[in-house]
Amino acid sequence: MNRMIKTIAGGMLAASLLLPLSAGAAEQDLQQKVDDLSKQIGDLKRQVNANERKSLGRWLQISGDYMFRYDYLKGDSPSFYPFMPSFTPAVPGTPATATSVIGLPPGGNPANYMSNPLMPGYLFGVAAPASTVKNEALFTHRFGLNINAKPTENITFAARLLMYKAWGNQTDSVLQAGNTAYSFDRAGLFDGTLGHLPGSSLLDVDRVYVDWENIADEPIWFSVGRRPSTDGIPTHLKNNTKRPGVGGIPALLVNYAFDGLTLGWAPDIDALPGAYGKFCYGRGFSTPLSDSRNSGNSVKDTDMFGVQVSPYNTDAVQLLLQYNRAHNVFDAPQMLTGPFSQILTGPKTNLGDLDWYGANLLGEVKHVGPGTFNWFVQGALDVTHPNGNTLVLNNPFDPSGQSSIDSHQGLLWSGTPNSTTGWSAFAGFRYDYLPTATKLGFEFNHGSKNWITFAPAEDDMWTSKVGTRGNVYEGYLIQELPLKPISSYFSKAFIKVGYQYYDFDYTGSNSWLGAPVDMAALNNPQNAQMTAPLSSAQDVYATFEVHF
Fold this sequence. Notes:
Layout: H1 2-54, H2 56-59, E1 60-77, E2 113-115, E3 123-125, E4 131-152, E5 155-166, E6 176-177, E7 180-181, E8 204-212, E9 220-226, H3 235-239, E10 259-265, E11 276-285, E12 302-313, E13 317-330, E14 350-368, E15 371-386, E16 392-394, E17 404-406, E18 421-433, E19 438-447, E20 470-480, E21 492-504, E22 536-547
Antiparallel strand pairs: 1-4, 1-22, 2-3, 4-5, 5-8, 6-7, 8-9, 9-10, 10-11, 11-12, 12-13, 13-14, 14-15, 15-18, 16-17, 18-19, 19-20, 20-21, 21-22
């Protein structure tokens, strides 16, 4: 019995000694399995992250918009003296003959012209009679394609391509009447306005730039390329788009596709939410090569410098202060199309410098009845610094191309190169009625006698309204269609109808060439005009737009 007990006790003792060893082995095995599983999960995570980085939706976004537009245009042009009359031979088919008077075309009848008091030896045509200008059914459509990419951390790429054309036409001639233009910024397409005015079916690069953010782990960014310097605040209200971010610019001062760069800083200050500041530089014209073996180029690069400060930037209220300087303003751009394309073949000289100062307030008030009230107020001042140079035109009546015509028109002067000061005010609102997604807006702007801005890319048909020397009234209604977005959260379709009325006080809206002339003083050959002036103009328009 004792031996049996001893045997059992010995077995129990051996079992007790073996149990910790078995439990330890089990724990080791379990830990190994956990480690292996953790490694597999880590590998899987790395594979998923790699796949996500490779996924197009992770680093590439494509969006766009389409607009069909109808315009009914009607304007009143008073009697005036054309600076460049539309010459025709006295008898069709008359062979070219020499003439002793520069400016008279071959075969022209001197009896039909009068002496030019500004340029002795040149001729003016007789005064053009008052006229009514119409286009009762202008159909256009515009297509925009946006590409955004995230190639690396803190680096983003953005591009926008634009096509804008009139139905059945591949030029901008729908904004002119034969060889007559009714504003300088609508006399032909040029760099900075391509894709923003009716032209051809070509898809032009409107924007292409790269942003580098969080430089040195600080709230500093650098951006370079063809700038997002079009459709700035407050045009987003009428365009029914999102408010531009820190890359935008006030549309009262600039609406032009510039090539340039920006350096910005957005400090985190509790008392100044959303505050930022930035320095901007743009190149308006680059000179060609010069050669020491000839006279070389007399024209210098045209550069734009700007400083923008927003000390307070929230959805409720944004304050934006802007200073711009245009250095070595060129005499005239190279018109790619239009009636001036033969005589304005590119800048030939610089006319001086321009300074602008602007202040902008905008915001929104929520829960105003069943909707949201959006508002804005903008004001700006311009100061010219002419250098005495004037616009010189190619003589279209000289087949040799050797002679030219001095227009005697400088930077907002036509006699003595004095500095001028102009101003403009721009205000409006949009009420968004949320139950039916209906938006009702009204805008008003006034420009003084010597007001000049640089906003030719605004898509108003007659002329960029913010550059008008006089008053412009505009009302519009936007009705979004109750359709569920599919391609993105911001996808939508809407219809817009609107009305614009221009009341011009002075000539030369959106042109920096020559002195403005009162509409009542046009019956004088010394006040001859390069473009046919308008005393008033109307535009009834409607659009159907899809954003995706």
